[in-house]
Design brief:
Blueprint lengths: L1 H9 L1 H17 L4 H8 L7 H20 L9 H19 L4 H18 L9 H17 L6 H22 L1
């Protein structure tokens, strides 16, 4: 909760990757907020009030996941809405003839985005969701201690640059 709030104000893509991880964590605990409070939250050494707030946040997430049918896969509506806003901004920047740097970064990332979209269910997702999915997938692989192929690293670098430029132009 505290990390999500901080990341949301600093970097939309970092926030989204974090929320993907939180969704997976809630699923790993069987959408059982009591287990999360007992087994996961104590690691953070929260004071009593922080623990109460974190427990309530995870309870709300688990409830929303059940209500939205996201027990096994998919993203919460709040996460999907953020992805959609990211895509809307992406399309605005592409349409802006003055956004030369962003458009150049897009064309550099485009072959990688096309490759991502050609895989399985990615065809139904918009470009920015595919980009965030790729970064999250790489994050998971790194957490497992797996090395990424040089081509994958090249793709991730291009995608990361595109997301960075999109966020920078959103702040100006």
């Amino acid at each position: 909760m505290y990390i999500a709030q901080k990341l949301r104000s600093q970097s939309v893509s970092a926030y989204l990757i974090y929320m993907y991880q939180v969704e997976d964590l809630v699923r790993a605990y069987g959408l059982d907020a009591g287990r999360i409070a007992a087994e996961y939250l104590p690691r953070f050494r929260y004071d009593e009030e922080q623990m109460r707030q974190a427990r309530e946040w995870y309870e709300a997430l688990a409830r929303m996941m059940r209500e939205e049918g996201k027990e096994e896969r998919g993203h919460l509506r709040v996460v999907q809405n953020t992805l959609d806003l990211l895509e809307d901004r992406h399309q605005e920047l592409l349409a802006d003839q003055d956004e030369h740097e962003y458009r150049a970064a897009y064309y550099k990332a485009l072959p990688h985005i096309v490759a991502l979209r050609s895989q399985g269910s990615n065809k139904e997702k918009h470009e920015m969701e595919n980009c965030v999915d790729a970064l999250y997938g790489a994050t998971l692989l790194r957490m497992q201690g797996k090395e990424l192929a040089s081509g994958t690293e090249t793709a991730l670098k291009a995608i990361s640059e595109l997301l960075r430029l999109g966020e920078e132009s959103n702040k100006s």
